[in-house]
Amino acid sequence: MATTHTRAAARLMLAPSVIMLLAWMIIPLSMTLYFSFLRYNLLMPGMETWAGIENYQYFLTDPAFFAALGNTLMLVGGVLLITIVGGTLIALLLDQPIWGQGVVRLLVIAPFFVMPTVSALVWKNMLMHPANGLFAWIAQTFGFQAVDWLGAMPLLSIILIVAWQWLPFATLIILTALQSLDQEQKEAAEMDGAGPFAIFLAITLPHLSRALTVVVLIQTIFLLSVFAEILVTTNGGPGTASTNIAFLVYAQALLQFDVGTASAGGVVAVILANIVAIFLIRIVGKNLDR
Amino acid sequence: MARATTTRHRVVVTAAAWTVGFLLFFPILWTFLTSFKSEATAVQIPPAFLFFDWTWENYVEVNVRSDYFRFAMNSVVIAVGSVLLGLLIAIPAAWSMAFAPTKHTKDILMWMLSTKMLPPVGVLVPLYLLFRDWGLLDTRTGLVVVMMLINLPIIVWMLYTYFKEIPGEILEASRMDGATLGKEIVFVLAPMAAPGIASTLLLNVILAWNEAFWTLNLTAAKAAPLTAFIASYSSPEGLFWAKLSAASMMAIAPILVLGWFSQKQLVRGLTFGAVK
């Protein structure tokens, strides 16, 4: 039994974490919100004036915003598609009786531990470079024209790089879920004459649904904020061809010094992320009850 | 058919799995090989795979010419420092939620999780300005604090799920024997939860080491960690692939090894206990 004394102590020990996270959330967020209603440029300090909703009007009607919103959705959607389908297939493969499974697992999860700036630059230069990259050499060997990956299709290239980073995460979580699948249920279905495809649809997939949901939601949170990969490969270009919302806000704030508009963009990004967060919180919360 | 696992089936799936593993690992392997080439060999077409003059030159060059060591030290200080600080703050909090839960505990946990979902660009501008005004831009102190705050929800959550598995009676028994709360945590809980605390430390060091939003935006030269050092190779002038590869290998090798050790805890930590 917890005594009154320990209860008081418990509250005291919880306080630092709660206070710090509260401060971390509320202070900068309310500042962002406040700045978003100001005409505020870092190059003209002390000249801030009230702008009303002008920044939002400017940010939301800027063609760059629509491009960035579209790119953000493409980036999140594309990476999710590749990692979910690829991750499920690879996890099903790794769940088979194979020699050296432990080593293959290590090889498959390795990309997840590579820092974003390294993976982006390795892909950009050594693999995707139009003249000296490995992909160009492979294409030429088979008699095709070498592709200027980041020049001609910057967004797709970034999607591929980011998908490579996240495929291990999806695979690992789906594999973990697969391994908790009740084998007897599968065997019973086999004895009843169900084929492997029918078993996958009727038993495996429903069992995976929760893991898949978690993968989608957690990846979405991180993918909405992809930044370093864009910064070191295309810098958002050409034009706005590979600019996402996160990069657009960064460019407004730290390249154009337009604090007001950048803050309005930040608020928009927070709202977008919250829509996803609500779903994730519900799923995790449900799990906590069990 | 899982029943009739024939050798042929096993050979086929083994070959397929190794191929997939090799392809996914290939960019890292290629970086490793390139790091031992001369700059001329690194860009040559057709590429050299194994038969070239292996050289340590790039590793020496990166260490001598650029301040690699300083960047690496920044990475170590920021990653390890922020996680240790986070553990110091999170262990009491996790104890409190695991062993003296109230009806609000669940809400607090959920709320902590939600702070993790705040997109960094939402607070980039004010944080940048506050750091500028407080003289924290490009300092290790500033980054340690930011990294600690970013990972605090994951640290609390992971510790909480590990602490929940420890029977509360043991802690109560020690309390009956007259142990103070501090002693109870340090001498009874910590040893029992040591594996959990170690995995929490490991996973969060990995996350902090690889974080590349705040480290790129809040540092310039003095406090820049390896993420920023590698980013400096993105300039289009000149191709220094061999040196880029050597620097990259040094930046990812330690974390790759740690990551391989922590792969079991990875799932649990990153899904907040939702998948085990």
Number of domains of chain A: 1
Mean pLDDT of chain B: 87
Q: What is the CATH third-level topology name of the largest domain in chain B?
A: MetI-like fold
N-to-C span of chain A: 23 Å
CA-atom Rg of chain B in angstroms: 23 Å
- What portion of residues of chain B is helical? over 70%
Order of helices and strands of chain A: HEEHHHHHHHHHHHH
By helix and strand content of chain B, what is the structural category?
mainly alpha
Please write the CATH class name of the largest domain in chain B.
Mainly Alpha
Describe the main β-sheet of chain A briefly.
Answer: 2 strands, antiparallel
Shape of chain B: globular
**CATH architecture verdict of the largest domain in chain B:** Orthogonal Bundle
CATH topology of chain A: MetI-like fold
If you had to describe this structure to a student in words, what would you say it looks like?
The complex is a heterodimer of chains A (290) and B (276). With 290 residues, chain A is mainly alpha-helical. Chain A has a single domain (63-289), classed as MetI-like fold. Chain A contains 13 helices and 2 strands, in the order αββαααααααααααα. Chain A has helices at 4-35, 54-61, 63-94, 101-109, 116-127, 134-141, 149-152, 154-179, 183-191, 196-223, 228-233, 245-255, 259-289, and strands at residues 38-39, 49-50. A two-stranded antiparallel sheet of chain A has the order 1-2. In chain A, helix 3 (63-94) packs antiparallel against helix 10, helix 9 packs antiparallel against helix 10 (196-223) and helix 12 (245-255) runs antiparallel to helix 13. The mean pLDDT of chain A is 88. With 276 residues, chain B is mainly alpha-helical. Chain B has 2 domains: 7-59, no CATH class; 67-270, MetI-like (MetI-like fold), CATH 1.10.3720. In chain B, 73% of the residues lie in helices and 0% in strands. Chain B is built from 14 helices and no strands. Chain B has helices at 7-34, 39-43, 57-65, 68-99, 105-115, 121-134, 140-164, 168-176, 181-192, 194-210, 214-218, 226-231, 241-261, 263-270. The interface between A and B is large, with 114 and 103 residues.
